Structure formats: structure tokens, C-alpha cells
Amino acid sequence: MYLIRRFEEAVSEAVRFARAPGFVHLYVGQEAIAVGVCAGLKSDDYVTSSHRADGHLLAKGADPRRVMAELYGRVDGYCRGKGGSMQLAAAEVGVLGANGIVGASLPMATGAALSARVQEVPRVVVCFFGEGASNRGEFGECLNLASIWKLPVVFVCENNGFTEFTRAEEVTAGSIASRAAGYDVPGVVVDGTDVRAVYAAAGEAVDRARDGGGPSLLECQAWRLCGHEEGEEAYIGDWSYRSEEEWQQASILDPIIKFRRMIDEDSAAGIEERVKQVVEAAVRFAEGSPYPEPDDAFTDIYAPGGD
Length: 307
Ligand SMILES: Cc1ncc(C[n+]2csc(CCOP(=O)(O)OP(=O)(O)O)c2C)c(N)n1
Description:
- Helices cover 42% and strands 11% of the residues.
- By secondary structure, it is α/β, with parallel strands linked by helices.
- Strands 2-1-3-4-8-7 form a 6-stranded parallel β-sheet, sandwiched between helices.
- Strand 5 (162-163) and strand 6 (166-167) form a beta hairpin.
- Helix 1 packs parallel to helix 13, helix 4 crosses helix 13 (265-288) and helix 5 (105-119) runs parallel beside helix 6.
- The protein is globular.
- Thiamine diphosphate is lined by residues 50-52, 100-103, 130-133, 160, 162-164, 228.
- Residues 50-52, 100-103, 130-133, 160, 162-164, 228 line the site of thiamine diphosphate.
């Protein structure tokens, strides 16, 4: 969790000083979800992700240097600098892709789970998506098919309180977790700021999926402790969708502050020092990596339906 937090601080700085391209969506406040879920996965399990993807990659074991290089648009990144933040995929560690299209992680995960079934591989697929994505049609379509076919998929809704610049309660009706019952899928609300609670709930869902029991839906509730995307204050002016009081109270929901209280000071200091070195090395690696050559613009590109 601490690695994700410090990694993203470095990303934020790189974007704000124009060393890396923009349109980066940070994961501050949601770290316990990626870590709690991915800690219980095997290395060949799959993950599909949203536009807020760095945390999912790092939690699934991606190399921070190659994630950073990708965010910088350099050739040593996981997608040779052509994916960037929202098309970031790391097949080596089972991350099938971030997504610029809200909701697209749902059919990707359902399809990957169907492929595991057809190939008779004991693989589980975890699908991360926001509460905004749960209002799109794919949500119902995928829960329905995954339930009917008892696919090994765990749907993890990250309810961070906001869809872009809109408060979730203005656009999302009722309880997301309870929507699962309509598809005969177990659905639970989880405290997404408590890594131990996420780990326990996800472990149960992953075991069920692996044992042939079919899909589950976890609604992990957390609070987005950052803007929708880096640099948004330049165009949303007064941050009118969030109040100052809310920011002050929100730090109570910081998963890292919560967890740090539970471990001893020496362990915390050791983690902090190691993470500092890892993040500094990632930035050095990214900044030392070249940009892709213009002649390579059409290599390593997948364009369905193209000539
Ligand atoms: C299909 C689609 N519609 C709209 C957008 C614009 N958009 C980007 S992020 C976002 C908010 C998504 O909210 P949520 O799913 O809750 O994820 P969060 O940003 O809170 O992590 C929107 C509407 C998009 N990228 N794709």
C-alpha cells in the first residue's frame, strides 16, 4: 500500500512538471482494495482494470520500474511506451489491461473467465471497476452470464464516492452489492479502507470461484483522497464538488494511516525506507529510458477490424 502511495506521488510530480504526459488517475485512498484482493491471488490469475490502474498493477506484482517507464511513455515500459496510463497492460503478471472506457473491464474479465473454463485452467479472474461503471449495461450483462455459466470471476466494485466530478449518490441508485442478488450472485459490502477486511472477503470469493462455485460481487467502499485526475484543479476551479470539511474528515479513511497504527514503528520505518529506494529507482529507470522511435508507431499495436 505504501509503495502504491509513494509511487503515485512521484507520478503526480512528473505530470505536474511535464516530465510525463497527463491524463493520469491516481488511486490515493483505495490502496487497501488492490492489495487486499491481489494478496490472495496466484501469479497466473488474471486481473482486468479501470482507468485508475497503477495500484492494481503494483499489487499484482508488476515491476515498478516498467510501470513508471510506461507512464513516462518510454520504450522500457510494459507496452513499449505506447499504452500510457489508460492502456497499461502487463501480461507477464496477469494484468490484461487498464481501460479508458468505463465499464470495459467487466466483459474483458467475463471473457477471460470463460476462456479459463473452456481451457480447463484453474484460473480466477478479478475485475476491478468503479461504482460509476456499475451503472453501465455491461454490469448486468456480465453478472448474468457469469452467474448462468458459473464462471470463475470476482467482480470488485471500488466505490470511492465519486464518478469523475459527480458525487456517487447523485447518479447511483440503491446498493451496488445488493444488485448481485438479482443475478443469483453473492454480493457483499466490504470496508475498502481496511486491508484485512478486503483480504478476508476477497479470499472467500476467490476460493469459491476456483472451486467451481461461480462469481461474486464485492462492493469495496473507500474514499477517493485525490482528484479525479491529476491537474483537474486547472479547469474545475473551486473544487465545488468537494468541501473543505469533507477533505478534513476524509483523512480518517486513509487506509495507510489506519494500517500503520497496527504495526510497530521499526517495521513501518523499514518499509518506508525500502519503498523510497524502489520509487527513486523507478523514476531513474523511466527517465533514462528512450522514447519509442517514430518508425515503430505501427508495431506492437492491436487494432481489431483493421486492414
Ligand atoms: C464509456 C465511458 N463513459 C464516460 C467516460 C468518461 N469518464 C472517465 S472516468 C469517469 C468516471 C467513472 O467513475 P467510476 O467508474 O466510479 O470510476 P472512478 O473514476 O471513480 O474510479 C467517466 C464518466 C469514459 N471514459 N468512458
